[in-house]
Structure prediction request, 226 residues.
Amino acid sequence: QQQVKQSPQSLIVQKGGISIINCAYENTAFDYFPWYQQFPGKGPALLIAIRPDVSEKKEGRFTISFNKSAKQFSLHIMDSQPGDSATYFCAALRGFGNEKLTFGTGTRLTIIP
Amino acid sequence: SQTIHQWPATLVQPVGSPLSLECTVEGTSNPNLYWYRQAAGRGLQLLFYSVGIGQISSEVPQNLSASRPQDRQFILSSKKLLLSDSGFYLCAWSGTRQGGEQFFGPGTRLTVL
Prediction:
């Protein structure tokens, strides 16, 4: 019930293409879904987040799509650039008073020229 | 603005030696604090979290312990390190005003030989 399943484990995309990373969850009590970006040797940094009252959130080239009925959410990176090469983690949180994030297993994204 | 510090940045320790990693947060009060471990190329494993001074919750039974002697200080310790304790240790904080967002420190790379 607490798991967040993330796919793919690794992804190679050509420069200028669209990178898509998917996550699925079981616990319908989750109500906050962030994505983190991590470069080698660095701590993860919050990239973008969404709450289930909206189906999509866009910030620059990064978009979260959220399907509440399917219990799935995904990260889309438009016009992918070599600087986007990093590991991406999805996560889910169940409300205030329970501040523990449940993380996906991560996707290593490589953008090739 | 809030900042989070971790030290040391890297550490090489022999098996059986003690460990003390420190994390401090600036610019906020009464944060929730977290210790994560990340094995090479793997996801984030929550080790401990704290909602206040002296309040520690353990997620995974092991030979590590955590303490929170001050509001914005979080310490990870071990009396005797094991080879399996090697990894990238990350401290994070969150606050009620941040709506569940967790902010990570730069991490400590621990190698146990």
Q: What stands out?
A: DSSP finds no helices and eleven strands in chain B. Chain B has a mean pLDDT of 91.
